[in-house]
């Protein structure tokens, strides 16, 4: 039977149809336009699902094993209720699983998008043949999906794995959660930009890096900071060195906490590759507890489709673990 995966993002909604072997056959995409409200977003999700279902012969109920949905959190994967994602304003206490089950009359599973991506990489990507996997996404924020002994780690309310809110530096930058020094505030793309802006504000013409191109960037992004560091911009290099240290501390904590066989990196910031990650990985391998240092590291293999594969994987995973 076929499965359908839906990747619900703050910018884009994507739906994919998968064959019984887990091969992506066709996909549909639509803008989320979250500012139009929950009803409009859910309507576009339904339209995207119907678009890929058109490629299935026969009845939906007889040919679709289920629909998996990866959504930004916080959400409750046990009830399928989306609580209040910051990237989806208006999606507050939405019973998404019930709504989609009523619409399509097939089993529907909803989980955090990072958990879904971890499942995708575990079953189809870089995490195959492992029982203990950490999928770490470094992007606008920092999140994780954690597979322990072959099962997703969910926690009491289904919110386990909020690694972006480990406190790395108690005197560090303010995080969106209200704490200071969270890993996300220190080392995410957003954190990199905010720390750079703060240092730029303190620049003056007597400082060498104040006259470099980085200071003239109007809409600063983490990508700009990486590019400037590669041109030996002193300020950018300082920021990247700090980021490497923060990432290394976080990885040490994760290894000591979860004893993973493999850590897989995803997300836009991780695309900086060895330039950003080589030093933190070496730091983690040298300073995590003895007996836990034999950790494999790799980049995500599924690319832009990791969310779709992960969402579809929710169906087989949930049905296998009932």
Automatic annotation (TrEMBL):
Q: Which Gene3D superfamilies match?
A: 3.30.420.40
Q: Which Pfam families match?
A: ROK (PF00480)
Q: Which domain of life is it from?
A: Bacteria
The record's comment on protein family reads: Belongs to the ROK (NagC/XylR) family.
Please report the name of this protein according to its UniProt entry: ROK family protein
Organism of origin: Paenibacillus piri
